[in-house]
Q: What sequence folds into this?
């Protein structure tokens, strides 16, 4: 029987003194790159004759560039902004919840719940979409797509979604560590290698099949399957879709650039341009909090047609 208390104290000591939010992902990066290499080898022969290759060298380089910049910048933002803000909330916490193995499970479920709402907000509120759009910019689905992230996430305020866990008494380092474990899991759902898994797993967990659908620009797949490790919140809150027809990966209005700066800021630039257009203040501000596809020229139409007929714009027409 393993000594859970000794193990927990050792892990706690490490977590409490380290910025684990990014370092866990850095530590795991050899495993990530190894996984990329074997997936690339697996599809290399088929990709040579395929009209829709799994791997495209330029595309994967873009993803890895963005992943590298994201990791470097995010460490700085987490240390200088996120952890101090979380420490302030923790100082005003409602109670104190020390970590035990079962409480870690509860924390993981809580962080997953927060992640679901962060991810849903990232698709339905343009401010957050400006950062998240980067992750959806690849027209290919392979493990390198998981690395495609925006270093402006912390600026957009993704960490605000996890503050409730700190407020109820979980230590900020533990909350961020748990989020990193969740993100590390998500690396492995970015693949076409794995078809559907056994039904009980597909019912509970976010799987490659569910996440392939999430990356689709086919109308039926847009704004579906927001879960990180689990798919149960999508089932509960009505955002689940089964992968049926072949997924067409990417954005409805694809951004054709390999420049990491362009790939990171294009939607911010578009949003600011929309806000600066003359008009009533209420409508101008709605470009920030409204859904990404909303356009003031047909405000009522956008409401009536909901999400399916006007999927995400990434540039002005
Ligand atoms: Zn997404
Ligand atoms: Zn993804």
A:
């Amino acid at each position: 029987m393993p000594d859970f208390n000794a193990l927990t104290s050792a892990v706690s000591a490490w977590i409490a003194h380290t910025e684990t939010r990014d370092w866990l992902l850095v530590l795991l990066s050899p495993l990530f790159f190894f996984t990329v290499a074997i997936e690339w080898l697996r599809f290399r022969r088929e990709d040579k004759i395929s009209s829709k290759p799994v791997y495209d060298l330029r595309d994967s380089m873009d993803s890895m560039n963005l992943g590298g910049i994201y990791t470097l910048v995010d460490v700085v933002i987490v240390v200088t902004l996120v952890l101090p803000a979380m420490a302030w909330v923790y100082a005003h916490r409602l109670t104190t919840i020390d970590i035990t193995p079962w409480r870690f499970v509860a924390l993981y479920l809580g962080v997953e719940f927060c992640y679901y709402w962060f991810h849903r907000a990232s698709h339905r509120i343009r401010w957050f979409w400006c950062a998240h759009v980067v992750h959806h910019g690849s027209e290919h689905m392979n493990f390198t797509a998981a690395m495609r992230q925006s270093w402006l996430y912390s600026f957009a305020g993704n960490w605000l979604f996890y503050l409730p866990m700190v407020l109820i008494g979980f230590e900020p380092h533990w909350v961020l560590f748990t989020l990193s474990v969740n993100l590390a899991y998500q690396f492995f759902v970015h693949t076409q290698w794995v078809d559907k898994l056994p039904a009980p797993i597909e019912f509970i967990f976010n799987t490659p099949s569910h996440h392939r659908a999430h990356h689709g620009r086919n109308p039926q797949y847009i704004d579906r399957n927001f879960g990180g490790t689990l798919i149960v919140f999508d089932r509960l809150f009505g955002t689940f879709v089964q992968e049926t027809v072949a997924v067409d990966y990417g954005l409805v209005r694809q951004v054709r650039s390999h420049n990491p700066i362009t790939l990171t800021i294009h939607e911010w630039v578009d949003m600011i341009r929309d806000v600066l257009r003359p008009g009533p203040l209420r409508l101008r501000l709605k470009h920030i909090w409204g859904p990404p596809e909303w356009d003031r020229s047909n405000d009522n139409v956008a409401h009536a047609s909901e999400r399916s007929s006007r999927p995400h714009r990434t540039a002005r027409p």
Residues 2 and 173 are 24 Å apart (CA to CA). Confidence is low (pLDDT under 50) at residues 301-311, 313-317.
